[in-house]
Design goal:
- It catalyses: L-arginyl-[protein] + 2 S-adenosyl-L-methionine = N(omega),N(omega)'-dimethyl-L-arginyl-[protein] + 2 S-adenosyl-L-homocysteine + 2 H(+).
- GO terms for molecular function: protein-arginine omega-N symmetric methyltransferase activity.
- Belongs to the NDUFAF7 family.
- The chain is of the alpha/beta class.
- The chain has a domain of 257 residues: 3-Layer(aba) Sandwich (Rossmann fold), CATH 3.40.50.150.
- A hairpin with a 2-residue loop joins β11 and β12.
- The strands form three sheets. It has a seven-stranded mixed β-sheet, sandwiched between helices. Strands 1, 6, 7, 8 and 9 form a five-stranded antiparallel β-sheet that branches.
- The protein is globular and about 60 Å long.
- α6 crosses α7 and α12 runs parallel beside α13.
- The chain has 16 helices and 15 strands.
- The chain is 35% helix and 19% strand.
Length: 441
């Protein structure tokens, strides 16, 4: 992380996968196209070829917390980071790791401030990485919450990687009393069956840098006015490479996501119809292809969570912007690989070859719409009947600096000259807080 841009890239160095391996392994059957989301899912999570599932080691873990107050300023901080990366031989440390324990402490403080402490505290973390967040939150509750809260709380990590699940148990187990409160469930969080029966009790769900690696779909239009089409990937005859195929919208998840985004809105005024007609003439002469990436993986995950945990409160944090994206389309991913210490950005998501990560910026405005749709509030708005619908969620979006200033201890991550990497360098990351609204009848 020699710069902020480098910090955002997270180029993969540990995993190995390739389209050739995917096609030859039977993940993509002969003469059977797959949706882009299935390609992305296989690339990241397939047990044999996935980026996260076949890592040779866990994500980066610092031996001790960084003592920011001993660093002179930004230059000293960057030099210190450079030494850390060389020492650990890893390309990425998560914010919760770089700023431990203060990053997780702020999350714990936000939970403690708003949770209903009359019932046992239950926290789910989706994709818990090395377990640093879980341990720090449990530490905070042990030190700051009423004893009853810590003694009765449950912290469940839902982790798809077995190697990371083992690492989480090791990390949390550094404090023996935490182990009776912590469990790891090695499964896919989007699978509704894995959650069992619906649990109406209050709970918290944490998703820290999870949304950026969730599968996305891609829709395409050859010009400015033609209908959107689904993008599928098929094997090219005689080759291991894939190519795109375009089909009319028919997949229910894609169609629902298109509806939520409003990119295919049919309701237009007469004036708009005239404008569209004019655009139609222009598009025939000067066609401009359109592409849009849809967070269908996020939609599926939130659908599952709202079905399983209807009274959940949600905290999600992720990048709202990624630099140097060359792949076309709204909300397009950054696909990067690293070789001999140099980062390579791919111009086509199908070009990833063995050491590439695929991650997306999070559209937090769209995330809020998806969250409300999955909770049922959006459906109530469309069919309110004789009564005004009751808003079922209360949401707020804050950049990392605002979140830390509200719930954290900003002085703890400040250097001697006042530079604060958590507040100054992570303003393009945001926090999304969503809690249920319970109105008295």
């Amino acid at each position: 992380m020699a710069s902020v841009s480098a910090a955002l890239r997270r180029a993969a160095t540990l995993a190995r996968w390739s389209p050739a391996a995917m096609f030859s392994s039977g993940i993509v059957p002969e003469n059977k196209p797959i949706l882009v989301r299935d390609f992305v899912r296989s690339a990241l999570y397939d047990p044999n070829h996935g980026y996260f599932s076949k890592r040779s080691g866990p994500v980066g873990v610092l031996d001790s917390s960084i003592r920011f107050h001993q660093l002179d300023g930004r230059s000293a901080y960057m030099q210190y980071l450079d030494k850390l990366y060389k020492k650990h031989d890893i390309a990425w440390f998560t914010p919760v790791e770089l700023f431990k324990p203060w990053y997780a402490y702020a999350i714990a403080a936000s939970i403690l401030r708003t949770a209903n402490l009359s019932v046992p505290l239950k926290i789910y973390e989706i994709g818990g990485g090395s377990g640093t967040c879980a341990k720090c939150i449990l530490d905070y509750m042990m030190l700051n919450a009423p004893p009853k809260v810590y003694n009765t709380m449950k912290y469940i990590s839902v982790e798809i990687s077995s190697s990371l699940a083992e690492k989480q148990l090791e990390t949390v187990g550094e404090v023996r009393s935490h182990l009776s409160k912590f469990t790891v469930e090695c499964r896919d969080a989007t699978d509704r069956a894995g959650w069992g029966r619906k649990d109406p009790r209050p709970s918290w769900v944490l998703m820290l840098e999870v949304l950026d690696n969730l599968p996305h779909d891609l829709v395409y239009s050859p010009d400015q006015v033609s209908p959107w089409m689904e993008v599928w990937i098929e094997k090219v005859n005689g080759s291991s490479q894939g190519s795109e195929v375009y089909k009319p919208l028919q997949d229910p998840l894609i169609s629902r996501c298109v509806e939520i985004t409003g990119i295919n809105e049919e309701k237009v005024s007469v004036r708009d119809k005239l404008s569209l007609a004019a655009k139609g003439v222009v598009s025939k002469v000067f066609p401009k292809p359109r592409r849009a990436w849809l967070p269908t993986g996020c939609l599926k995950l939130l659908d599952t969570l709202h079905q399983a945990l209807p009274s959940m409160s949600l905290i999600a944090s992720d990048f709202s912007y990624l630099p140097d994206v060359s792949i076309p389309g709204d909300r397009a991913p950054l696909v990067s690989s690293k070789k001999d210490g140099k980062t390579l950005d791919h111009r086509n998501y199908l070009e990833a070859q063995g050491d590439a990560d695929i991650f997306f910026p999070t559209d937090f405005w769209l995330l809020e719409k998806i969250d409300h749709d999955c909770s049922g509030f959006s459906k109530q708005q469309k069919n309110p009947g004789a009564f005004k619908p009751v808003k079922t969620r209360r949401t707020i979006i804050l950049d990392s600096a605002a979140f830390m200033e509200e719930f954290g201890l900003p002085l703890k991550t400040r250097t001697k000259d006042g530079y604060n990497p958590l507040l100054d360098d992570f303003r393009n990351t945001k926090f999304y807080l969503s809690v249920p609204t319970h109105n008295k009848k």
